[in-house]
Protein backbone atom coordinates (compact mmCIF):
# COMPACT_ATOMS: atom_id res chain seq x y z
CA UNK A 1 0.00 0.00 0.00
CA UNK A 2 2.86 2.38 0.79
CA UNK A 3 4.37 1.69 -2.64
CA UNK A 4 1.09 2.64 -4.32
CA UNK A 5 0.80 5.82 -2.25
CA UNK A 6 4.40 6.72 -3.15
CA UNK A 7 3.56 6.33 -6.87
CA UNK A 8 0.54 8.62 -6.46
CA UNK A 9 2.58 11.16 -4.48
CA UNK A 10 5.17 11.23 -7.26
CA UNK A 11 2.41 12.09 -9.72
CA UNK A 12 1.16 14.99 -7.56
CA UNK A 13 4.60 16.11 -6.31
CA UNK A 14 3.58 15.59 -2.68
CA UNK A 15 6.31 13.15 -1.60
CA UNK A 16 6.87 15.14 1.58
CA UNK A 17 3.49 14.05 2.91
CA UNK A 18 4.44 10.36 3.01
CA UNK A 19 4.05 8.75 6.46
CA UNK A 20 4.86 5.34 7.94
CA UNK A 21 1.16 4.40 7.71
CA UNK A 22 -0.44 4.57 4.24
CA UNK A 23 -3.10 7.23 3.66
CA UNK A 24 -6.00 5.02 2.63
CA UNK A 25 -8.39 7.93 1.97
CA UNK A 26 -5.90 9.59 -0.37
CA UNK A 27 -5.55 6.35 -2.41
CA UNK A 28 -9.33 5.81 -2.43
CA UNK A 29 -9.98 9.29 -3.82
CA UNK A 30 -7.52 8.80 -6.68
CA UNK A 31 -9.04 5.46 -7.62
CA UNK A 32 -12.57 6.89 -7.57
CA UNK A 33 -11.64 9.70 -9.96
CA UNK A 34 -10.22 7.13 -12.38
CA UNK A 35 -6.49 7.73 -11.89
CA UNK A 36 -5.35 4.10 -12.09
CA UNK A 37 -1.86 4.08 -13.66
CA UNK A 38 0.00 4.06 -10.27
CA UNK A 39 -1.69 0.72 -9.54
CA UNK A 40 0.45 -0.87 -12.24
CA UNK A 41 3.53 -0.68 -10.01
CA UNK A 42 2.32 -3.42 -7.64
CA UNK A 43 1.53 -7.01 -8.68
CA UNK A 44 -0.36 -9.80 -6.93
CA UNK A 45 0.29 -13.51 -7.54
CA UNK A 46 -2.29 -16.26 -6.98
CA UNK A 47 -2.42 -20.01 -7.59
CA UNK A 48 -5.63 -21.10 -9.28
CA UNK A 49 -6.95 -24.68 -9.24
CA UNK A 50 -9.38 -25.11 -12.14
CA UNK A 51 -10.10 -27.30 -15.13
CA UNK A 52 -8.34 -27.04 -18.48
CA UNK A 53 -11.24 -25.21 -20.07
CA UNK A 54 -10.97 -22.40 -17.52
CA UNK A 55 -7.16 -22.28 -17.79
CA UNK A 56 -7.53 -21.73 -21.54
CA UNK A 57 -9.77 -18.76 -20.76
CA UNK A 58 -7.27 -17.37 -18.24
CA UNK A 59 -4.34 -17.31 -20.63
CA UNK A 60 -6.31 -15.03 -22.93
CA UNK A 61 -5.34 -12.26 -20.49
CA UNK A 62 -1.98 -11.93 -22.21
CA UNK A 63 -0.60 -9.14 -20.05
CA UNK A 64 -0.59 -11.53 -17.09
CA UNK A 65 2.35 -13.80 -16.26
CA UNK A 66 1.67 -17.53 -16.06
CA UNK A 67 4.14 -19.89 -14.44
CA UNK A 68 4.92 -23.47 -13.65
CA UNK A 69 8.06 -24.89 -12.02
CA UNK A 70 11.35 -23.87 -13.70
CA UNK A 71 15.12 -23.67 -13.17
CA UNK A 72 17.72 -21.34 -14.67
CA UNK A 73 19.85 -22.34 -17.64
CA UNK A 74 23.18 -22.84 -15.84
CA UNK A 75 21.75 -25.55 -13.58
CA UNK A 76 23.84 -28.71 -13.92
CA UNK A 77 22.02 -31.96 -14.61
CA UNK A 78 25.21 -33.92 -15.31
CA UNK A 79 28.83 -33.28 -14.41
CA UNK A 80 29.57 -31.33 -17.60
CA UNK A 81 26.08 -30.55 -18.89
CA UNK A 82 23.65 -27.75 -17.99
CA UNK A 83 19.94 -27.68 -18.76
CA UNK A 84 20.45 -24.80 -21.23
CA UNK A 85 23.18 -26.73 -23.07
CA UNK A 86 20.87 -29.74 -23.31
CA UNK A 87 18.04 -27.48 -24.59
CA UNK A 88 20.33 -26.27 -27.40
CA UNK A 89 21.10 -29.84 -28.47
CA UNK A 90 19.09 -31.57 -31.22
CA UNK A 91 15.89 -33.23 -30.04
CA UNK A 92 17.25 -36.67 -30.92
CA UNK A 93 20.26 -36.04 -28.67
CA UNK A 94 18.00 -34.83 -25.84
CA UNK A 95 15.92 -38.00 -25.91
CA UNK A 96 19.05 -40.20 -25.82
CA UNK A 97 20.38 -38.41 -22.74
CA UNK A 98 20.17 -40.18 -19.39
CA UNK A 99 20.29 -38.19 -16.16
CA UNK A 100 19.63 -39.07 -12.55
CA UNK A 101 16.14 -39.73 -11.15
CA UNK A 102 15.07 -41.22 -7.84
CA UNK A 103 12.70 -44.18 -7.52
CA UNK A 104 10.04 -44.81 -4.89
CA UNK A 105 12.58 -46.53 -2.63
CA UNK A 106 14.77 -43.41 -2.54
CA UNK A 107 17.49 -44.99 -4.72
CA UNK A 108 19.16 -43.00 -7.48
CA UNK A 109 18.66 -44.50 -10.94
CA UNK A 110 19.32 -43.49 -14.53
CA UNK A 111 16.30 -42.17 -16.43
CA UNK A 112 15.90 -40.85 -19.96
CA UNK A 113 14.92 -37.28 -20.81
CA UNK A 114 11.61 -37.01 -22.67
CA UNK A 115 11.80 -33.30 -23.55
CA UNK A 116 13.53 -30.03 -22.63
CA UNK A 117 11.73 -26.73 -23.00
CA UNK A 118 12.21 -23.05 -22.30
CA UNK A 119 9.76 -21.36 -19.90
CA UNK A 120 10.62 -17.70 -20.49
CA UNK A 121 12.01 -14.97 -18.24
CA UNK A 122 10.72 -15.23 -14.67
CA UNK A 123 11.53 -14.17 -11.11
CA UNK A 124 14.04 -16.61 -9.63
CA UNK A 125 15.44 -17.31 -6.16
CA UNK A 126 18.69 -18.90 -4.97
CA UNK A 127 18.33 -21.74 -2.47
CA UNK A 128 21.32 -22.83 -0.34
CA UNK A 129 21.52 -25.75 2.11
CA UNK A 130 23.81 -26.58 5.00
CA UNK A 131 25.54 -29.19 2.82
CA UNK A 132 26.64 -26.50 0.38
CA UNK A 133 24.12 -27.29 -2.37
CA UNK A 134 22.84 -24.31 -4.39
CA UNK A 135 20.12 -23.94 -7.03
CA UNK A 136 18.34 -20.99 -8.63
CA UNK A 137 14.71 -21.53 -9.58
CA UNK A 138 11.19 -20.06 -9.52
CA UNK A 139 8.92 -20.14 -6.48
CA UNK A 140 6.83 -22.83 -8.20
CA UNK A 141 9.63 -25.35 -8.56
CA UNK A 142 9.05 -28.44 -6.43
CA UNK A 143 11.66 -30.04 -4.17
CA UNK A 144 11.57 -33.55 -2.77
CA UNK A 145 11.08 -33.51 0.98
CA UNK A 146 10.88 -36.33 3.50
CA UNK A 147 8.16 -38.90 2.90
CA UNK A 148 8.61 -38.76 -0.92
CA UNK A 149 6.58 -35.54 -1.03
CA UNK A 150 7.25 -32.72 -3.49
CA UNK A 151 6.80 -29.20 -2.10
CA UNK A 152 7.04 -25.95 -4.15
CA UNK A 153 9.66 -23.46 -3.03
CA UNK A 154 6.97 -20.93 -2.11
CA UNK A 155 5.87 -23.32 0.68
CA UNK A 156 9.41 -23.88 1.98
CA UNK A 157 11.37 -21.73 4.39
CA UNK A 158 14.75 -21.61 6.10
CA UNK A 159 15.15 -24.66 8.34
CA UNK A 160 13.00 -26.96 6.19
CA UNK A 161 14.39 -30.29 4.96
CA UNK A 162 14.86 -31.16 1.29
CA UNK A 163 16.51 -34.25 -0.17
CA UNK A 164 19.74 -34.09 -2.12
CA UNK A 165 21.83 -36.63 -3.97
CA UNK A 166 25.25 -37.43 -2.56
CA UNK A 167 26.85 -38.38 0.71
CA UNK A 168 26.52 -36.33 3.90
CA UNK A 169 29.80 -34.57 4.70
CA UNK A 170 31.68 -36.35 7.48
CA UNK A 171 33.35 -33.11 8.53
CA UNK A 172 30.96 -31.59 11.03
CA UNK A 173 32.66 -28.18 11.30
CA UNK A 174 32.45 -25.10 9.10
CA UNK A 175 34.93 -24.34 6.33
CA UNK A 176 36.23 -21.40 8.36
CA UNK A 177 36.88 -23.60 11.41
CA UNK A 178 38.66 -26.19 9.25
CA UNK A 179 40.83 -23.46 7.71
CA UNK A 180 41.81 -22.20 11.16
CA UNK A 181 42.73 -25.72 12.30
CA UNK A 182 44.87 -26.23 9.20
CA UNK A 183 46.93 -23.16 10.13
CA UNK A 184 48.29 -25.12 13.11
CA UNK A 185 47.68 -28.85 12.63
CA UNK A 186 48.49 -31.43 9.96
CA UNK A 187 45.69 -33.18 8.03
CA UNK A 188 46.45 -36.35 10.03
CA UNK A 189 45.99 -34.47 13.31
CA UNK A 190 42.71 -32.92 12.11
CA UNK A 191 41.40 -36.33 10.98
CA UNK A 192 42.22 -37.82 14.40
CA UNK A 193 40.46 -34.98 16.26
CA UNK A 194 37.33 -35.09 14.04
CA UNK A 195 37.36 -38.92 13.90
CA UNK A 196 37.10 -39.05 10.11
CA UNK A 197 39.29 -40.73 7.46
CA UNK A 198 42.41 -38.76 6.59
CA UNK A 199 41.59 -38.78 2.86
CA UNK A 200 38.33 -36.93 3.67
CA UNK A 201 40.36 -34.08 5.15
CA UNK A 202 42.73 -34.03 2.17
CA UNK A 203 39.80 -33.92 -0.28
CA UNK A 204 38.10 -31.08 1.59
CA UNK A 205 41.31 -29.03 1.84
CA UNK A 206 41.91 -29.42 -1.87
CA UNK A 207 38.30 -28.41 -2.60
CA UNK A 208 38.84 -25.27 -0.52
CA UNK A 209 42.10 -24.71 -2.47
CA UNK A 210 44.18 -24.29 0.68
CA UNK A 211 46.06 -27.59 0.64
CA UNK A 212 49.86 -27.31 0.81
CA UNK A 213 52.13 -30.32 0.52
CA UNK A 214 53.87 -31.18 3.83
CA UNK A 215 52.43 -28.13 5.59
CA UNK A 216 52.86 -28.25 9.41
CA UNK A 217 54.63 -31.63 9.29
CA UNK A 218 56.80 -32.12 12.38
CA UNK A 219 59.97 -33.34 10.64
CA UNK A 220 60.51 -31.22 7.56
CA UNK A 221 64.06 -32.60 7.17
CA UNK A 222 62.80 -36.04 6.14
CA UNK A 223 61.51 -34.57 2.90
CA UNK A 224 64.86 -33.03 1.99
CA UNK A 225 67.16 -35.73 3.45
CA UNK A 226 69.20 -32.91 4.99
CA UNK A 227 69.79 -31.45 1.56
CA UNK A 228 69.32 -27.79 0.76
CA UNK A 229 68.41 -26.33 -2.60
CA UNK A 230 72.07 -25.48 -3.13
CA UNK A 231 73.22 -29.03 -2.27
CA UNK A 232 70.70 -30.52 -4.74
CA UNK A 233 72.04 -28.25 -7.48
CA UNK A 234 75.66 -29.19 -6.63
CA UNK A 235 74.83 -32.93 -6.67
CA UNK A 236 73.12 -32.64 -10.04
CA UNK A 237 76.06 -30.76 -11.52
CA UNK A 238 78.51 -33.37 -10.20
CA UNK A 239 76.61 -36.32 -11.70
CA UNK A 240 76.27 -34.55 -15.03
CA UNK A 241 80.00 -33.80 -15.08
CA UNK A 242 80.77 -37.47 -14.38
CA UNK A 243 78.82 -38.56 -17.47
CA UNK A 244 80.51 -35.83 -19.48
CA UNK A 245 83.85 -37.28 -18.38
CA UNK A 246 82.92 -40.77 -19.65
CA UNK A 247 80.90 -42.35 -16.83
CA UNK A 248 78.62 -45.17 -18.06
CA UNK A 249 75.74 -47.19 -16.59
CA UNK A 250 77.08 -50.21 -14.71
CA UNK A 251 75.58 -52.95 -16.96
CA UNK A 252 76.33 -51.43 -20.34
CA UNK A 253 77.85 -54.08 -22.63
CA UNK A 254 77.73 -56.82 -19.93
CA UNK A 255 76.25 -60.19 -20.99
CA UNK A 256 74.53 -62.82 -18.86
CA UNK A 257 77.63 -64.97 -18.51
CA UNK A 258 79.65 -61.98 -17.31
CA UNK A 259 77.50 -60.93 -14.33
CA UNK A 260 74.92 -62.87 -12.18
CA UNK A 261 72.49 -59.89 -11.91
CA UNK A 262 72.23 -59.58 -15.70
CA UNK A 263 71.72 -63.35 -15.94
CA UNK A 264 68.85 -63.22 -13.40
CA UNK A 265 67.15 -60.42 -15.34
CA UNK A 266 67.31 -62.41 -18.58
CA UNK A 267 65.85 -65.51 -16.97
CA UNK A 268 62.94 -63.52 -15.54
CA UNK A 269 62.11 -62.03 -18.96
CA UNK A 270 62.10 -65.42 -20.66
CA UNK A 271 59.90 -66.95 -17.94
CA UNK A 272 57.21 -64.27 -17.80
CA UNK A 273 57.19 -62.24 -21.03
CA UNK A 274 54.86 -63.40 -23.81
CA UNK A 275 54.09 -61.88 -27.20
CA UNK A 276 50.50 -62.83 -28.02
CA UNK A 277 49.54 -63.73 -31.56
CA UNK A 278 46.62 -62.48 -33.63
CA UNK A 279 43.39 -64.12 -34.80
CA UNK A 280 43.03 -67.83 -34.09
CA UNK A 281 46.54 -67.92 -32.57
CA UNK A 282 45.53 -65.40 -29.88
CA UNK A 283 45.11 -66.88 -26.39
CA UNK A 284 41.76 -65.01 -26.03
CA UNK A 285 40.30 -66.32 -29.32
CA UNK A 286 36.57 -67.14 -29.06
CA UNK A 287 35.68 -68.45 -32.52
CA UNK A 288 35.30 -65.19 -34.45
CA UNK A 289 34.02 -61.67 -33.86
CA UNK A 290 31.07 -61.67 -31.49
CA UNK A 291 27.72 -60.09 -32.34
CA UNK A 292 28.13 -57.24 -29.89
CA UNK A 293 31.53 -56.28 -31.31
CA UNK A 294 29.90 -56.00 -34.73
CA UNK A 295 27.10 -53.86 -33.28
CA UNK A 296 26.85 -50.53 -35.08
CA UNK A 297 30.36 -50.82 -36.49
CA UNK A 298 29.66 -47.66 -38.52
CA UNK A 299 28.49 -45.72 -35.42
CA UNK A 300 31.15 -43.08 -34.74
CA UNK A 301 29.93 -41.39 -31.56
CA UNK A 302 28.63 -42.23 -28.09
CA UNK A 303 24.84 -42.65 -28.00
CA UNK A 304 24.71 -40.86 -24.62
CA UNK A 305 27.12 -37.94 -24.74
CA UNK A 306 28.06 -37.68 -28.42
CA UNK A 307 31.81 -38.08 -27.83
CA UNK A 308 33.76 -40.02 -30.47
CA UNK A 309 36.77 -41.17 -28.42
CA UNK A 310 37.31 -44.82 -27.39
CA UNK A 311 33.89 -46.26 -28.22
CA UNK A 312 32.68 -49.49 -26.63
CA UNK A 313 29.47 -51.56 -26.56
CA UNK A 314 27.36 -51.69 -23.41
CA UNK A 315 24.79 -54.37 -22.49
CA UNK A 316 21.76 -52.59 -21.02
CA UNK A 317 20.86 -55.52 -18.76
CA UNK A 318 24.59 -56.04 -17.98
CA UNK A 319 24.33 -59.61 -19.24
CA UNK A 320 27.24 -60.12 -21.66
CA UNK A 321 25.58 -63.24 -23.10
CA UNK A 322 22.51 -61.26 -24.19
CA UNK A 323 23.66 -59.81 -27.51
CA UNK A 324 20.23 -58.89 -28.79
CA UNK A 325 20.43 -55.61 -30.73
CA UNK A 326 17.84 -53.96 -28.43
CA UNK A 327 20.11 -54.73 -25.48
CA UNK A 328 23.19 -52.99 -26.94
CA UNK A 329 24.25 -49.33 -27.06
CA UNK A 330 27.46 -47.77 -28.40
CA UNK A 331 29.08 -45.63 -25.69
CA UNK A 332 32.39 -43.94 -24.97
CA UNK A 333 34.66 -45.36 -22.29
CA UNK A 334 33.61 -42.65 -19.80
CA UNK A 335 29.87 -43.29 -20.16
CA UNK A 336 30.51 -47.04 -20.10
CA UNK A 337 32.17 -46.74 -16.72
CA UNK A 338 29.37 -44.54 -15.38
CA UNK A 339 26.69 -46.95 -16.61
CA UNK A 340 28.33 -49.72 -14.59
CA UNK A 341 29.39 -47.74 -11.54
CA UNK A 342 26.84 -44.91 -11.34
CA UNK A 343 26.57 -41.33 -12.56
CA UNK A 344 26.20 -39.95 -9.08
CA UNK A 345 28.19 -39.16 -5.96
CA UNK A 346 25.88 -41.22 -3.77
CA UNK A 347 23.39 -43.94 -4.59
CA UNK A 348 20.56 -42.56 -2.48
CA UNK A 349 19.06 -39.32 -1.22
CA UNK A 350 19.94 -37.71 2.07
CA UNK A 351 18.32 -34.80 3.96
CA UNK A 352 19.76 -31.31 3.71
CA UNK A 353 18.53 -28.23 5.60
CA UNK A 354 17.74 -24.98 3.78
CA UNK A 355 19.87 -22.16 5.15
CA UNK A 356 19.08 -19.39 2.68
CA UNK A 357 16.40 -18.35 0.16
CA UNK A 358 17.39 -15.17 -1.68
CA UNK A 359 15.66 -13.30 -4.52
CA UNK A 360 18.05 -13.02 -7.49
CA UNK A 361 16.01 -11.22 -10.15
CA UNK A 362 14.63 -12.18 -13.55
CA UNK A 363 16.35 -14.86 -15.64
CA UNK A 364 15.61 -17.14 -18.57
CA UNK A 365 14.19 -20.40 -17.22
CA UNK A 366 14.00 -23.98 -18.49
CA UNK A 367 12.58 -27.31 -17.42
CA UNK A 368 12.88 -30.98 -18.23
CA UNK A 369 10.26 -33.64 -18.73
CA UNK A 370 11.41 -37.11 -17.69
CA UNK A 371 10.14 -40.44 -18.91
CA UNK A 372 7.58 -42.29 -16.81
CA UNK A 373 7.22 -43.49 -14.15
CA UNK A 374 9.73 -41.31 -12.25
CA UNK A 375 8.95 -37.67 -13.04
CA UNK A 376 11.92 -36.14 -11.24
CA UNK A 377 15.58 -35.41 -11.82
CA UNK A 378 18.68 -34.25 -9.95
CA UNK A 379 19.59 -30.60 -10.59
CA UNK A 380 22.69 -29.14 -8.89
CA UNK A 381 22.40 -32.02 -6.44
CA UNK A 382 18.75 -31.26 -5.51
CA UNK A 383 16.06 -33.83 -6.27
CA UNK A 384 13.33 -31.82 -7.97
CA UNK A 385 10.07 -32.57 -9.74
CA UNK A 386 9.94 -31.95 -13.47
CA UNK A 387 7.12 -29.83 -14.81
CA UNK A 388 5.48 -32.82 -16.51
CA UNK A 389 3.40 -30.78 -18.90
CA UNK A 390 1.49 -34.00 -19.46
CA UNK A 391 0.86 -35.62 -16.08
CA UNK A 392 0.54 -39.37 -15.89
CA UNK A 393 -2.83 -39.94 -14.19
CA UNK A 394 -2.69 -43.72 -14.30
CA UNK A 395 -2.65 -45.23 -10.83
CA UNK A 396 -4.04 -42.15 -9.08
CA UNK A 397 -7.25 -41.79 -11.04
CA UNK A 398 -8.28 -38.95 -13.34
CA UNK A 399 -8.70 -35.69 -11.37
CA UNK A 400 -11.54 -33.57 -12.78
CA UNK A 401 -13.41 -30.41 -11.79
CA UNK A 402 -17.17 -30.85 -11.29
CA UNK A 403 -18.97 -28.27 -13.49
CA UNK A 404 -20.98 -25.72 -11.54
CA UNK A 405 -23.77 -25.35 -14.11
CA UNK A 406 -25.43 -28.79 -13.84
CA UNK A 407 -27.31 -30.13 -10.87
CA UNK A 408 -28.44 -33.79 -10.63
CA UNK A 409 -31.91 -33.01 -12.04
CA UNK A 410 -30.87 -30.78 -14.94
CA UNK A 411 -32.14 -31.44 -18.46
CA UNK A 412 -33.37 -35.00 -17.98
CA UNK A 413 -32.56 -37.33 -20.86
CA UNK A 414 -34.21 -40.68 -21.58
CA UNK A 415 -31.73 -43.38 -22.40
CA UNK A 416 -32.58 -47.10 -22.94
CA UNK A 417 -30.41 -49.68 -21.20
CA UNK A 418 -29.92 -53.37 -21.80
CA UNK A 419 -30.67 -54.22 -18.17
CA UNK A 420 -34.04 -52.49 -17.93
CA UNK A 421 -36.80 -52.80 -20.50
CA UNK A 422 -38.04 -49.33 -19.59
CA UNK A 423 -36.17 -46.12 -20.38
CA UNK A 424 -33.99 -44.68 -17.63
CA UNK A 425 -33.78 -40.94 -17.04
CA UNK A 426 -30.29 -39.40 -16.85
CA UNK A 427 -29.39 -35.82 -15.98
CA UNK A 428 -26.77 -33.81 -17.86
CA UNK A 429 -24.43 -34.18 -14.91
CA UNK A 430 -24.82 -37.97 -14.96
CA UNK A 431 -24.00 -38.00 -18.68
CA UNK A 432 -20.94 -35.83 -17.97
CA UNK A 433 -19.88 -38.23 -15.21
CA UNK A 434 -20.12 -41.23 -17.54
CA UNK A 435 -18.01 -39.37 -20.11
CA UNK A 436 -15.33 -38.71 -17.47
CA UNK A 437 -15.26 -42.41 -16.55
CA UNK A 438 -14.92 -43.36 -20.23
CA UNK A 439 -12.06 -40.86 -20.68
CA UNK A 440 -10.24 -42.29 -17.66
CA UNK A 441 -10.64 -45.86 -18.95
CA UNK A 442 -9.35 -44.83 -22.39
CA UNK A 443 -6.40 -42.95 -20.88
CA UNK A 444 -5.35 -45.87 -18.67
CA UNK A 445 -5.68 -48.28 -21.58
CA UNK A 446 -3.38 -46.14 -23.72
CA UNK A 447 -0.83 -45.99 -20.88
CA UNK A 448 -0.99 -49.78 -20.49
CA UNK A 449 -0.17 -50.05 -24.21
CA UNK A 450 3.04 -48.04 -23.53
CA UNK A 451 1.71 -44.79 -24.94
CA UNK A 452 3.54 -41.80 -23.43
CA UNK A 453 1.59 -39.40 -21.15
CA UNK A 454 1.76 -36.65 -23.80
CA UNK A 455 0.24 -39.05 -26.34
CA UNK A 456 -2.43 -40.42 -24.01
CA UNK A 457 -3.52 -36.93 -22.91
CA UNK A 458 -5.25 -36.45 -26.27
CA UNK A 459 -8.30 -38.28 -24.84
CA UNK A 460 -8.52 -36.14 -21.69
CA UNK A 461 -11.50 -33.78 -21.43
CA UNK A 462 -11.62 -30.04 -20.68
CA UNK A 463 -12.78 -30.91 -17.15
CA UNK A 464 -9.34 -32.32 -16.27
CA UNK A 465 -7.99 -30.63 -13.16
CA UNK A 466 -4.99 -28.33 -13.58
CA UNK A 467 -3.12 -25.69 -11.58
CA UNK A 468 -1.80 -22.37 -12.86
CA UNK A 469 0.00 -19.48 -11.16
CA UNK A 470 -1.09 -16.01 -12.34
CA UNK A 471 0.60 -12.66 -11.71
CA UNK A 472 -0.93 -9.32 -12.73
CA UNK A 473 -0.54 -5.77 -11.54
CA UNK A 474 -3.45 -4.34 -9.57
CA UNK A 475 -4.87 -2.37 -12.46
CA UNK A 476 -5.04 -5.53 -14.59
CA UNK A 477 -6.65 -7.48 -11.73
CA UNK A 478 -9.35 -4.79 -11.58
CA UNK A 479 -9.85 -5.15 -15.32
CA UNK A 480 -9.98 -8.95 -14.96
CA UNK A 481 -12.70 -8.75 -12.30
CA UNK A 482 -14.72 -6.22 -14.33
CA UNK A 483 -14.76 -8.66 -17.26
CA UNK A 484 -14.91 -12.06 -15.54
CA UNK A 485 -16.79 -11.38 -12.30
CA UNK A 486 -19.00 -8.37 -13.09
CA UNK A 487 -19.58 -9.00 -16.80
CA UNK A 488 -19.08 -5.38 -17.86
CA UNK A 489 -18.80 -6.39 -21.55
CA UNK A 490 -21.18 -9.34 -21.60
CA UNK A 491 -22.10 -12.38 -19.57
CA UNK A 492 -18.97 -14.38 -18.57
CA UNK A 493 -18.76 -18.16 -18.70
CA UNK A 494 -20.39 -19.69 -15.56
CA UNK A 495 -17.15 -21.34 -14.48
CA UNK A 496 -15.25 -18.05 -14.83
CA UNK A 497 -17.86 -16.36 -12.62
CA UNK A 498 -17.51 -19.22 -10.15
CA UNK A 499 -13.76 -18.57 -10.05
CA UNK A 500 -13.60 -14.76 -10.34
CA UNK A 501 -16.32 -13.72 -7.85
CA UNK A 502 -14.76 -15.39 -4.77
CA UNK A 503 -11.34 -14.08 -5.85
CA UNK A 504 -12.70 -10.54 -6.13
CA UNK A 505 -14.26 -10.78 -2.66
CA UNK A 506 -10.96 -12.05 -1.22
CA UNK A 507 -9.05 -9.22 -2.92
CA UNK A 508 -11.53 -6.65 -1.58
CA UNK A 509 -11.03 -8.07 1.91
CA UNK A 510 -7.22 -8.31 1.81
CA UNK A 511 -6.40 -5.27 -0.35
CA UNK A 512 -9.04 -2.75 0.67
CA UNK A 513 -9.53 -0.03 -0.68
CA UNK A 514 -7.89 -0.98 -4.01
CA UNK A 515 -10.92 -3.01 -5.11
CA UNK A 516 -13.73 -1.57 -3.00
CA UNK A 517 -15.45 0.30 -5.83
CA UNK A 518 -15.90 -2.92 -7.85
CA UNK A 519 -19.49 -3.79 -7.06
CA UNK A 520 -21.52 -6.88 -7.87
CA UNK A 521 -25.18 -6.26 -8.66
CA UNK A 522 -26.19 -8.91 -6.11
CA UNK A 523 -24.17 -7.30 -3.30
User: How many distinct helices?
Assistant: 17
Radius of gyration: 35 Å
CATH homologous superfamily descriptor of the domain at 69-166 and 347-385? Hedgehog/Intein (Hint) domain
Which CATH architecture of the domain at 69-166 and 347-385 is right? Beta Complex
- Could you give the count of β-strands? 19
Largest sheet: 6 strands, antiparallel
- General form: flat
Kindly report how far apart the N and C termini lie.
Answer: 25 Å
Q: Return residue spans where pLDDT drops below 50 for at least 5 consecutive residues.
A: 342-346
CATH class category label of the domain at 69-166 and 347-385: Mainly Beta
β content, as a range? 15-25%
Q: What would the average pLDDT be, to the nearest integer?
A: 78
Q: What structural class do helix, strand and pairing data support?
A: alpha+beta
CATH fold annotation of the domain at 69-166 and 347-385: Endonuclease - Pi-scei, Chain A, domain 1
Helix content estimate: 25-40%
Amino acid sequence: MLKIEFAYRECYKSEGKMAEVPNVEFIRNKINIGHLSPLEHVAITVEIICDRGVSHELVRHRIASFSQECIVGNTKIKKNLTVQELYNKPKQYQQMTCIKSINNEGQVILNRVAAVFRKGIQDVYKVITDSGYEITCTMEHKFLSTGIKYIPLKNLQIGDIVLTNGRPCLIQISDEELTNMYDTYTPQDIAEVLKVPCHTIYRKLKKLRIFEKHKNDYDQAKYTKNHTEESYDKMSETIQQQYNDGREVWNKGITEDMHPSVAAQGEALRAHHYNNKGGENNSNWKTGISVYREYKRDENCCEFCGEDDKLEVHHLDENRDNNDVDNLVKVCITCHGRLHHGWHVGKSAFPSTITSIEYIGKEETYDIEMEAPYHNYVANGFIVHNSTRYCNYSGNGLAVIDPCFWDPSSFMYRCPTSEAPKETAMSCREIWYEAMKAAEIAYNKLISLNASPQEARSVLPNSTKTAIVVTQNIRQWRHFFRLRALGMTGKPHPQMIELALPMMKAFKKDYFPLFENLQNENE
